[in-house]
Amino acid sequence: MNKGGGGGKDLLVINGQAIRVFSEKSPENIPWSSAGAEYIVESTGMFTSRATAHAHISAGGAKKVVISAPSEDAPMFVCGVNLESYTPAMEVISNASCTTNCLAPLAKVVNDKFGILEGLMTTVHAMTATQKTVDGPSKKDWRGGRSALTNIIPSSTGAAKAVGKVIPSLGGKLTGMAFRVPTPDVSVVDLTCKLVKQATLTQIAEAVAEASSGKMQGILGKTEEMLVSSDFRGNPLSCVFDVQASISLNETFVKLVAWYDNEYAYSCRLVALLNHIFYTDSRRLGAGDTGKADGKSKLPPGPGATAAKDRPKCCGCFG
């Protein structure tokens, strides 16, 4: 940290790249325009409504805000699922949760191909910063106040219901819960559902493979190896379908297992969503408004990103 350097500006320097740093309690006090920042990621977890997140725009001078959490009233988007619904008129949007980003692509593939009558989801979720290191009070619920380091903690999650917001045909058909476990990273989703059409696990795996080489490339994948959670650390895919761990009672009642790095993969999707909305906005405004003559995004696309012309189709940070 270069505090006070550069004409009194606080700077964070990473690999030679200087990044302006502000220290403000409220979004409306952050002078984004002075740093030339137009597209903001709201990651504090405190300002998740459209009204509170909009303060970055109304007072700070930003153009768009992406909330890195579910939102009660902001439009919600999941890469590979519903990005085509985004319009430049939307100023505040949500990238949903890491669990929804894992569940929604898998649910979409299964629902599109075989149909889902109803389902229950369980996520076995790595501990997060909101949990307690030792037993203490919790505003949310009694169990939430117990030590994250020594317990498996049942918890609520809106991830399954949120799928209905990004896939309207699944509205009211899915719900779920979470178990918080004492591991630092990587989580796993169990989607147990009844199918409309009969399908073997092999057919479901084939449908996932087909989608992962098409519109969901860089977002969805599958594995047939006997892996464990730490093997997925640093994996950029939102959802990795585990063929060997999945089981079926019959051809219309299945339990589907999918892994996700709830930290890294979600961050990749944030970058992908930013690129998508910037590119979509730039197409509407014209190349002259993008900051570059060729109209390409000035946002960092991330390693292995596709060309700007392909981003709305690919959606993934990694191709």
TrEMBL record:
<keyword id="KW-0547">Nucleotide-binding</keyword>
<protein>
    <submittedName>
        <fullName>Glyceraldehyde-3-phosphate dehydrogenase-like</fullName>
    </submittedName>
</protein>
<dbReference type="Pfam" id="PF00044">
    <property type="entry name" value="Gp_dh_N"/>
</dbReference>
<dbReference type="GO" id="GO:0004365">
    <property type="term" value="F:glyceraldehyde-3-phosphate dehydrogenase (NAD+) (phosphorylating) activity"/>
</dbReference>
<keyword id="KW-0520">NAD</keyword>
<feature type="domain" description="Glyceraldehyde 3-phosphate dehydrogenase NAD(P) binding">
    <location>
        <begin position="1"/>
        <end position="98"/>
    </location>
</feature>
<feature type="binding site">
    <location>
        <position position="68"/>
    </location>
    <ligand>
        <name>NAD(+)</name>
    </ligand>
</feature>
<feature type="active site" description="Nucleophile">
    <location>
        <position position="98"/>
    </location>
</feature>
<feature type="binding site">
    <location>
        <position position="128"/>
    </location>
    <ligand>
        <name>D-glyceraldehyde 3-phosphate</name>
    </ligand>
</feature>
<dbReference type="Pfam" id="PF02800">
    <property type="entry name" value="Gp_dh_C"/>
</dbReference>
<feature type="region of interest" description="Disordered">
    <location>
        <begin position="289"/>
        <end position="311"/>
    </location>
</feature>
<dbReference type="GO" id="GO:0006096">
    <property type="term" value="P:glycolytic process"/>
</dbReference>
<keyword id="KW-0560">Oxidoreductase</keyword>
<dbReference type="InterPro" id="IPR020829">
    <property type="entry name" value="GlycerAld_3-P_DH_cat"/>
</dbReference>
<feature type="site" description="Activates thiol group during catalysis">
    <location>
        <position position="125"/>
    </location>
</feature>
<dbReference type="InterPro" id="IPR020828">
    <property type="entry name" value="GlycerAld_3-P_DH_NAD(P)-bd"/>
</dbReference>
<dbReference type="InterPro" id="IPR036291">
    <property type="entry name" value="NAD(P)-bd_dom_sf"/>
</dbReference>
<feature type="binding site">
    <location>
        <position position="262"/>
    </location>
    <ligand>
        <name>NAD(+)</name>
    </ligand>
</feature>
<dbReference type="GO" id="GO:0051287">
    <property type="term" value="F:NAD binding"/>
</dbReference>
<feature type="binding site">
    <location>
        <position position="180"/>
    </location>
    <ligand>
        <name>D-glyceraldehyde 3-phosphate</name>
    </ligand>
</feature>
<dbReference type="InterPro" id="IPR020831">
    <property type="entry name" value="GlycerAld/Erythrose_P_DH"/>
</dbReference>
<dbReference type="GO" id="GO:0005829">
    <property type="term" value="C:cytosol"/>
</dbReference>
<comment type="similarity">
    <text>Belongs to the glyceraldehyde-3-phosphate dehydrogenase family.</text>
</comment>
<dbReference type="InterPro" id="IPR020830">
    <property type="entry name" value="GlycerAld_3-P_DH_AS"/>
</dbReference>
<feature type="binding site">
    <location>
        <begin position="97"/>
        <end position="99"/>
    </location>
    <ligand>
        <name>D-glyceraldehyde 3-phosphate</name>
    </ligand>
</feature>
<feature type="binding site">
    <location>
        <begin position="157"/>
        <end position="158"/>
    </location>
    <ligand>
        <name>D-glyceraldehyde 3-phosphate</name>
    </ligand>
</feature>
